């Protein structure tokens, strides 16, 4: 499997910096482009703050060794927008965080990661918040 494009959707939760480090390590090890994506829900009003956060996360990904990093923001429902972006970008892999919702909370609120896993046009790597430390990776090029 050759990785040329990795999509990493971000929700700016406490797990986001670790998730970016994880995705950046994968991008650095494979030479893939890393796309950091934030989906603004319709009720989100603070677009400038989101752009500032993305810029900071892009810098962190570059410090972690990712060479080709881009960012983007779209507005809408998270899961369908992530899947659509993966298709538009021809992503080879989606690296997405899991918040570990189970039971009634998952039933009532839905689970973005689960919907992305089921509907994405490419493989999806689900990273738990507790495991979001960058892996030591080595790939033969």
Automatic annotation (TrEMBL):
Pfam families: Usp (PF00582)
CDD domains: USP-like
Domain UspA residues, every copy: 5-128
Family statement: Belongs to the universal stress protein A family.
Designated name of the protein: Nucleotide-binding universal stress UspA family protein
Organism: Hymenobacter caeli
């Amino acid at each position: 499997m050759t990785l040329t494009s990795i999509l990493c959707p971000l929700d700016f939760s406490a797990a986001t910096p670790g998730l970016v480090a994880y995705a950046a390590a994968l991008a650095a090890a494979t030479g893939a482009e890393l796309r950091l994506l934030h989906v603004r829900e319709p009720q989100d009003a603070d677009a400038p703050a989101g752009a500032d956060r993305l810029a900071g996360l892009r810098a962190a990904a570059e410090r972690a060794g990712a060479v080709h990093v881009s960012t983007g923001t779209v507005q809408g429902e998270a899961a369908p927008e992530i899947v659509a972006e993966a298709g538009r970008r021809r992503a080879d892999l989606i690296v997405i965080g899991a918040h570990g919702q189970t039971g009634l909370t998952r039933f009532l609120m839905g689970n973005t990661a689960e919907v992305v896993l089921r509907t994405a046009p490419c493989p999806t790597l689900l990273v738990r918040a507790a495991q979001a430390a960058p892996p030591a990776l080595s790939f033969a090029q």
